[in-house]
């Protein structure tokens, strides 16, 4: 599914983020920037061990929840990895929605700062961090759509969704945003 917002596109695909040919790939990291499982493990495996060395050297204090940091992309075809730290779902009363929005916004700002035209996002926080996919998808898509109405730099944001349930959920939300 592909939809135009402003002069840019939002695309939803079912697949593996590590193989995407885009300028920047977003990782769902943890605040220690330590290697984890899920999409983080897959990205570090595919990109190579120099990414962890770069994170330790440049960001020894980690990254706060709701923010993101940039590294090079090692063996990936992307130029950069943006390591975003989404919130752990705790029922919705711990500012999770603001923190998730801010994680996406920080990545979009990094994309502008690093001259990226295309960015691929996973579904941040909806794996081990247990954020309900319908709520997280709404925030993800609305935050990106809002940014695309105002940026000239970013031309494509691709959500790379790993399972059919997440892909279906994001697709339904994007459809409702069109009416
Ligand atoms: P978080 O800790 O932020 O919840 P996870 O990595 O546990 O992060 O999960 C985030 C989402 O990324 C989940 O939907 C998970 O299925 C998905 N995911 C796992 N591996 C990949 C991959 N290689 N490409 C894209 N998405 C992936």
Automatic annotation (TrEMBL):
GO MF term list: hydrolase activity
Enzyme Commission number(s) of this protein: 3.5.1.-
Macro domain boundaries: 1-178
Keywords: Hydrolase
InterPro entries attached to this UniProt entry: Macro_dom (IPR002589), Macro_dom-like (IPR043472)
NCBIfam families the record matches: PRK00431.1-6 (NF001664)
Protein's recorded name: O-acetyl-ADP-ribose deacetylase
Source organism of this protein record: Gimesia algae
């Amino acid at each position: 599914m592909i939809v135009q917002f402003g002069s840019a596109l939002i695309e939803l695909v079912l697949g593996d983020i590590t193989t995407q040919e885009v300028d920047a790939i977003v990782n769902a990291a943890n605040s220690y920037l330590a290697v984890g499982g899920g999409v983080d493990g897959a990205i570090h495996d595919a990109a190579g061990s120099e990414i962890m060395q770069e994170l330790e050297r440049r960001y020894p204090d980690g990254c706060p929840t709701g923010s993101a940091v940039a590294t090079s992309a090692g063996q990936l075809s992307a130029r950069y990895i943006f390591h975003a730290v989404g919130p752990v779902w705790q029922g919705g009363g711990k500012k999770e929605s603001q923190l998730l929005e801010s994680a996406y916004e920080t990545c979009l700002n990094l994309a502008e700062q690093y001259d990226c035209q295309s960015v691929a996002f996973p579904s941040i926080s909806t794996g081990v961090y247990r954020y309900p996919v319908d709520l997280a998808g709404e925030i993800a898509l609305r935050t990106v759509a809002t940014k695309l109405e105002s940026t000239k730099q970013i031309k494509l944001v691709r959500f790379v969704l790993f399972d059919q349930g997440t892909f279906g959920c994001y697709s339904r939300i994007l459809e409702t945003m069109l009416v």
